[in-house]
Amino acid sequence: MDVVLPYAGIVLLVGPSNSGKSTLIKEFVDKGELLSSEMVSSDEVRLLVSDTDFIDWKHRPSDEADALYEEYQRISVEAFGLMDRLIETRCRMNKLTVVDATHLHPDDRKRYIEMARRYHVPIVAIVLDVEQNILLERDEQRDQPRGKRRIRQQYQVFKREKRFIKKEGYRATFFIKNPEDIQLKRHRENPIELDVDNGIDVIGDIHGCYDELIELLLKLGYKKHEEGYFIHPEGRRFLSLGDVMSRGPRSIETMQFFMEHVDRGLAFMIDSNHGWKIARWLDGRKVTLAHGDELVEEEMKKFKEEHGEEQTQQLKEELKSFLLGAPSHYLLRKNGVPTLVCTHAGIKDEFIGKQSYDVSDFCRYGDNEGLDENGKPIRKDWTIHHKTSTLVVWGHDPKPKPLMMNHTVNIDQGVVFGGELTALRYPEKEFVSVKAKRDYSGGSRNPLKELEKKRLDPPNIAKFINGYKVLTEDVGEIHVPKEYCISALDDVSHFTIPIEELVYIPPTMSPTPIPSVLEDYLEHPKEVIEYYRSMGVERMVAEKKHMGSRGILMIYRDKETGLKHVGRETLGVIYTRSGRRFFAPEVEKDVLKRLNQALTRYDYFKTYETDYVLLDAEIMPWNLKARELISNQYGHVSEHAILDRSFIKRKLEEAVDSNHNLEAWLSDYDKKLDNAKLFKEVFQKYCWDIEDISNIQIAPFHVLAHSHETFFDKPHTWHMEMNHEFAKMDGLFVETEYMVIDDSSSEQAVIEWWETITSEGHEGIVIKPDIFITKSKGKLIQPAMKVRGRKYLHIIYGMDYLLPNNLERLKKRNVSKKQKLALKEFSLGVEGIRRLVGGESIERIHECVLGTLAMEADAVDPRL
């Protein structure tokens, strides 16, 4: 007899003492068919807890027998308690456990059946049906016989229970009379685990959109074989997340396509809600075909008209078997390590790698809480409970773009509703999509349009509070740690502008990658230029760095447009790098009104056919936002330093005539007094009185977006040209000087320009690759670097920072952490604006904005 054991779960040995359970298992272990760790014996556990596996209370006086029997009972209770905990643990770990005990009483068996159900593993019973006379003969041969009376009692119980065992709910039950006839077979590997091998392309919900499926496969590099199969030249395979049918125009053709490719090992497909319903309908079950399933029935009727009853019945049987055989999910292994889960609607962490009715049900439908007024399930967000590092790819719930949250990614982009059909290339983690030919939904409820209506709904804070990950196009996954999220959430809750207006936080900017080699310089343009050239960048733009405060300006065409985008009438908003309102409300109102009128006067919105313009700018003067900082950290410090150093200098001058040894000290303080005066001169240059808004200067250096496009594909020279155009529209806008670096002569010209403006007290310049998003060997490089002047750095590093000992110490500064933050924040910002322009929800945009704010909570030297 073939006894087939599952990959994981519980194998329950059933039979009286002496039926050969332990001997049978030992043989399997000796043959290498089972591991010794996969066996749990009640006798051995008794030995573990009490140092003995047998207590003989017979032939003892009654008082001794009673005491020994009670001790045996206590040992048994502890042993079976420990045994159950061990088996439960192995079930959670998805391991196979063979339980060696008599299991004669129904309650003993029921306990393990419920355990298997609770931990979603199969349970198999191996029943050793041995005659009573053989049991008695074997007992006499034991070193410690159980006794004839006990064996007869156990046999009677076994005879009574034997007929009930098959009905108790085991996946399989094997009745064994002669153990020598057993051929043990087992699944060594989890049947729902797949090796990535040369790569797997995971495809989202297709819903009968056959044309889009073929277009996507071709785009992924698959070639149509002469027999009609799609085969990748590199040996890649494709995997469907289910719902290949219903709603769309060619369900039967799509199901046949996958059935044929799966049969030949070229593809895989998992179970799904529509697949499960269609399978039961094909099986003749009484199901209500709705929500697009009725279209499959219509296709089948047409198939019958064209091919007849016989071929139709054959097709139904083939499709039914195919759909019923689809697993609840797949677990993909990379280099032998499980790293990716593919499921239709969702999965709990404890379900991964397991199969049961509950697992299948959850994977088909996700986490639901009843039905809405239209009879559609109300979906709960299962992703917030995903805690492991395994990436979960799912579909079922259409989203405009691939949605990454808590290490899960949704790749159902609603192709049947006029959206896109998406594939995730794994292990590359690249998305490939094709647009739908049209909206096939026939005007019925379109979830993509419903999402658009819900775009301004508040985010689910539970998704963010414990940390999360953001999938960005330029650097991939960015982890936002829990400890930084909490402070960022507090800022957003209490201090920032409303989140529907908070669409972008500009990134931090790194200084020169290494200190200047020049003796009296900490920063110099040469080091930045050499860094970019080492990354293959030949053309750069150097922009004058204004000394003000970073400001983001969202300017709408009119108040009605503001209502459309943020839910209330407004001409826009102006806010700081920390997300707080830049101006007092009345001042902001006046500034926005003036800028809106200027843009309207120049037909800006009409010319560019846009609802808004989003600008990244520097707003001056510095004292607009830094008044308290200037007063406390610069004004008072400089005044006191000048007074103290002047006093000491006078005393030294009075004493130097009588003690020439003080001349060096006097010279030193003479220089320090000059430093203090220079310190005061520098910060005062960036401040002026604000009598009205006409004294404000705004220097936009990035046009981030219009309502239908981003401008990350434009070179920085284009952005500077736009800066000059804005300056012509209104006096609040000011031009930013810039130069291009593309050869040695232009490099020298920029250095000389930098030396001139910084000697006059200006802050410095920013050097950028001309291409907005620049990569080297596939990796993003610094989008911009600042080079600050010698004078300006006095207010950053102190009035005496150029003294030799101080400068030597400062040249050892480490900017690597600042650079890493700059890249992450830049990528988050770009990703957030792409989502904004793509019309995605506030929640999707907010995860990028919150991520940047959270990164700012990471401790980095603020002087960098």
Q: How many strand segments?
A: 35
- What percent of the residues sit in helical stretches (DSSP H or I)? 40-55%
Strands ordered across the widest β-sheet: 8-14-15-18-20-19
Low-confidence stretches: none
Structural class: alpha/beta
Average pLDDT, rounded to a whole number, is 88
Number of helices: 25
The backbone outline, from C-alpha atoms, is globular
Amino- and carboxy-terminal Cα gap: 75 Å
Major sheet summary line:
6 strands, mixed
Beta-strand portion reads 15-25%
* Rg for CA atoms: 37 Å
Characteristics of this structure?
globular, five-stranded parallel β-sheet, alpha/beta, six-stranded mixed β-sheet, 864 residues, 19% strand
Task: Quickly describe the structure.
By secondary structure, the chain is α/β, with parallel strands linked by helices. The protein is built from 25 helices and 35 strands.
Provide an overview of this structure:
The structure is a single chain. With 864 residues, the chain is an alpha/beta fold. 41% of the residues lie in helices and 19% in strands. It has 25 helices and 35 strands. A 6-stranded mixed β-sheet has the order 8-14-15-18-20-19, with helices on one face. Strand 21 and strand 22 form a beta hairpin. Helix 2 crosses helix 3 (62-92) and helix 8 runs parallel beside helix 10 (294-324). The mean pLDDT is 88.
